[in-house]
Write a structure and sequence with these properties.
Strand content: 15-25%
Distance between the termini: 103 Å
Structural class: alpha+beta
Number of strands: 11
Radius of gyration: 40 Å
Number of helices: 10
Amino acid sequence: MILRNSLFSGKGFLPIDLVILLIVTVGVIAFSNWVFRIVDNREREINERKEQLEALHSAALTLTTELDLGEVLQKVVELSRGLVKAKYGALGVLEEGTEYIAQFFTSGISKEQRELLGEIPRGHGLLGLLIREGKSIRISSIHDHKDSAGFPPNHPEMHTLLGVPIKSAGKIIGNLYMCDKITVNSSGQEGNEDFTKRNQEVLEMFATQAAIAIENAQLYRKAQRLSVLEERERFAMDMHDGIIQSIFGTGLILENAQLSIKSNPEGAESQIGEAMQALNDVNRDIRNYILGLRPNRFQGRDLIAGLEELMRDLRANSFLTVNLHQSGDDYSSLAPEQTVQILHIAQEGLNNIRKHARAVKVNIRLEHKDGNFLLVIEDDGIGFDPKLTVPDETRGIKNMHERAKSLNGKLQIKSKKGGKTRISLLMPFN
């Protein structure tokens, strides 16, 4: 009020009034500058956070497009380095159940530099500190830290460190190591400064996303391996039940031709032609395997036609009497894959009878009633002890059980030394 009266009393300014006015003006300017600085800093912080969140979102999306584990791990370290503007970055993946690094991915150094460093680190020094403590660390001077183990020969000079663990289900599966935050001054020169709390928070958020991506890639790799194993098992099964059995049958045809070539040349010639056709079928099946296709044996057959073909083969290459008994004749609603599996089971059973049973008669029985399908193959041979089967026969029996399982059915083989053998397949069939 006194200042206002002095300024507007009409009596003119006194020196003291001028001093007060200058003080007030300077105060207003200083206050304004302080407010503007706060606003500018807030605006810069908001923009920086926005950029970081956008970069974090972009990095997370980038990870979702990759399923190869090696590529995911390399992308994780490269994206992490970009998020916090680090000159160097590394990702150490731990050996399961241990505190040792099993894989080490780097970013910021050339392939040639990486090769000069030799073996990957195992987890000593500051790398081990992060593994043991399991929480993020920020270090201003690597050289001066008490846990620093120094650098190996040919290692680039590094000063500051930001380390963040990657956790899955509460367990550490790896760690991110970022070194030397890059800064650019007003004259465009590069420098480095300490990593900030905000850098740590952003990297921790990304580590959570990275853990999910790594888990997905690991699951995908396991699924691929399982698929390969299943395909190998299928290949071995089809080789045993299809190609090997076909070659065995062809060998029997040629043996018969050899025995009758003098007494019955025309019959032997016919058998040789049959064997040549069988070998052509085997060649076709092998080509199908090479091209990733299924073998053609039984493809396109209905159940009765397929069984009759197997019976003809058995009669032609043995002295067995083979009979087929049907209860009902409607098997047309069986899916093609179901028919192929059933015929492979029947083929394995009949081939084992031919090779080992010393039987005279074989009865094949089909039943279809009450929503179930039943196949029974019974011989009057010498039987066998299932515990004493040789590996090849064990493989064949295992294949029969696997095929029955794929049909949601159950296979039973009943036999004993000196007695007949009965094979039965029971499966749902509407």
